[in-house]
Amino acid sequence: MTRTGLAPAKINLFLHVGRLADDGYHPLASLVAFADVGDGVTVTRADALSLSVTGPFGGALAGEGDNLILRGLRALGEAAGIGAPPVAVTLDKQLPIAAGLGGGSADAGTAIRLAARLLDLDLDEAALEAVAGVVGADGPMCLRARPAWATGRGDDLRDEPRLPPLHAVLLNPGLPSPTGAVYRAYDDAPAGGADCPNAPSDWSPAALIDWLKGQRNDLEAPALRVTPGIGEALSAMNAAPGCRLTRMSGSGATVFGLFDDAAAAENAAVVLQRPGWWVRPCLLGNPASG
Fold first, then answer.
1. CA distances (Å), origin 107, targets 38, 39, 208
2. What's residue 290's pLDDT?
């Protein structure tokens, strides 16, 4: 028996970050959406837990002994009282590494959900979210993989079903942007705050994009100090025909642009192609629903 699913790219439409708290975490506020592009995860019944990685970005994970997928599945087995789940996982790594897209957390969340279904484990949604939390603050949000307001450490989640589908282009300039280094650069000159704005009154795509222009990503400036090449990606996206909003996602290095329709996004993706750049037109929203 086998189950297969998409581990969708996570996009922070805005990301407001506060100063480091006593608990060692940065408080934040974000509106999160998920793309209809991501990694492929296949889970098959087997004699023992195993993981194999393929795909264009799979080589970067070779020899990674404590992959987030394995960590999450061991926690799943512990929660279910079965030990390490007897499943073989294949990860088709289509998303760049250290890209600000939540790829590792999304891979783990998808594997946890697929394995729980495959093995018919008696764990409710709250229990699965607790399991996903072992991979980090993004774990529960990426397990859900649906639009949400995230506050606290990022794991205080409130679903946002009003978010409309948004046409977008994702661009990664082929440069890693390690989350830890970006947060350390932020701590050197903290600027921002974990303020959560009031929800927009108009959720039409055009009005939402205008509302998002008034928000920010507080990790963008420190990410640019760590990885200056992100600036070229931001400039290119901002200059792409039809781009309504340009912003970095998460801790980078991926940037996104929002567009009025699919044709504009697809045209911009063609214009943005450069050697070494990863560019994908996509739809942001709730890929799990369809």
1. 9, 7, 29
2. 41
Among 19-23, 124-128, 232-236, whose mean pLDDT is lowest? 19-23
Query: How much is the pTM?
Result: 0.94
Cα gap 70→47, rounded to integer Å: 15
Helix, strand, coil share (%) of the chain residues, nearest 5? 35, 25, 40
Q: Are 280 and 272 in contact (CB under 8 A)?
A: no
The SS3 assignment for 268 reads helix
Q: First CA to last CA across the chain, in angstroms?
A: 23
Please tell me which residue in 10, 36, 93, 218 is annotated as part of the active site.
Answer: 10
- 36, 39, 92, 138: which one is catalytic? 138
Instruction: List C-alpha distances in Å: 76 to 68, 80, 263.
Output: 12, 6, 42
Instruction: Give the mean pLDDT of the chain.
Output: 95
Predicted confidence (pLDDT) at residue 264 exceeds the cutoff of 90: yes
Q: Report whether 70 contacts 49 (CB < 8 A).
A: yes
Q: Please check whether residue 199 is in contact with residue 175, taking contact to mean a CB–CB distance below 8 angstroms.
A: no
pLDDT of res. 176? 87
Q: Is 138 a catalytic residue?
A: yes
Task: Please confirm, yes or no, whether 93 is among the known catalytic residues.
Answer: no
Residue 96, pLDDT score: 94
Q: What is the pLDDT of residue 60?
A: 77
